Amino acid sequence: MAENNDVIAAIVGIEPGSALAEVVAGRADIMALTQQTHDGALTPVASGGLTHAERAALACRIAKINDDKDFEEHFEALLDSAGPSSDTARIADIWFDGGSDIRLKALIRHVDLVAHAPKDATRRDIELLQEAGLTDADIVRLSELVAFVSYQIRVAAGLRLMRGLA
């Protein structure tokens, strides 16, 4: 599933020629931009201080928080293809808090906070990321990843509802 050119269509199960496919075709520009953003957020050419494996593991964690098995499987496939270290792979485990690794602990804490209760995030939460060694650019990258994966999961949820009504 990870190699599909349209992740949302594959995850939702949009069949060519279906009523939902026609609706989505009317928003082809948005779907194409969504796929481009997926690729840029998860496998950018220049990954900065967040590796492809870390991005996939964090995305998988967000999918688990949102109880979306299809996205969980998609992000696990991306994680596997990135060849993660054992610690990086553990990021996807919602029971793992980062252990003694200050950077992982900060990444996980922040992703969990923003995925669960974004309105509760404060300036201090950003400062904790900085104190753990993340650069401002990597904090922006992390924020983009969390926002995008949350968006992607919600778009798919809406399309699943529409498919059920068709």
Brief synopsis:
The chain has 166 residues and is mainly alpha-helical.
What can you tell me about this protein's structure?
The protein has 166 residues and is mainly alpha-helical. The chain has a single domain, classed as AhpD-like, CATH 1.20.1290.10. The protein is 69% helix and 0% strand. The chain contains nine helices and no strands. It has helices spanning 7-12, 19-25, 28-42, 52-65, 69-82, 86-90, 102-116, 123-131, 136-165. The two termini are 24 Å apart. The relative contact order is 0.16.
Structural class: mainly alpha
Q: What is the average per-residue confidence, as pLDDT, rounded to a whole number?
A: 93
Q: N-to-C terminal Cα separation, in Å? A: 24 Å
CATH class: Mainly Alpha
Q: What is the overall silhouette?
A: elongated
Low-pLDDT runs: none
Characterize the biggest β-sheet. Answer: none
The CATH architecture:
Up-down Bundle
CA-atom Rg in angstroms: 16 Å
Question: What share of the residues lie within helices?
Answer: 55-70%
CATH superfamily: AhpD-like
| H/E element sequence | HHHHHHHHH
Beta content comes to under 5%
How many helices? The count is: 9
Number of folding domains?
1
InterPro entries: AhpD-like
